[in-house]
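Researcher: Next sequence.
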Amino acid sequence: MDPADHPAGDRDVAPSQDIDVGFVARVADLARLSLSQEELAATTDDLRAILGHFEAIGAVDTEGVEPLAHVLSSSGRPAADEVAPFPDARVRITANTDHAREGFFVVPRVLDETAITSGETSGGPAADDPDAGGLPSSADDPSFEHDPGADPEDLP
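Model: Next structure:
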């Protein structure tokens, strides 16, 4: 593709040498950025360097080089959506952590004691009712006590 045919080819882009502190201050003002004089100077230098890299890339002779849409050749069709078996999923997933017990992840308590004993579990089944499908109770297990200042790495 000829650079003149490119959609952005007709835009006036300032060469890196034309970038000055006033230009960066104007752009910063448009972006509602408040920059100190030191930040304006540093940003001006950074922007000049970035645009200099683009100028170097733009100077490369690409005559005869086919445009590359993607590094991998693909038909663009998504892969087939097939359900694959995942045996022992719970065992395999909890094997990735030291914070698992009886097939469940061990996490700090997020409900206070009154919510646990009254069965309030944010609309889910009561944790203490095994017939309700909830998780086993942790109210009597001291290793589940939550200390807000504790390091998560110290969990059992």
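Model: Helices lie at 21-30, 37-58, 89-94, 113-118. Strands lie at 100-101, 104-105.
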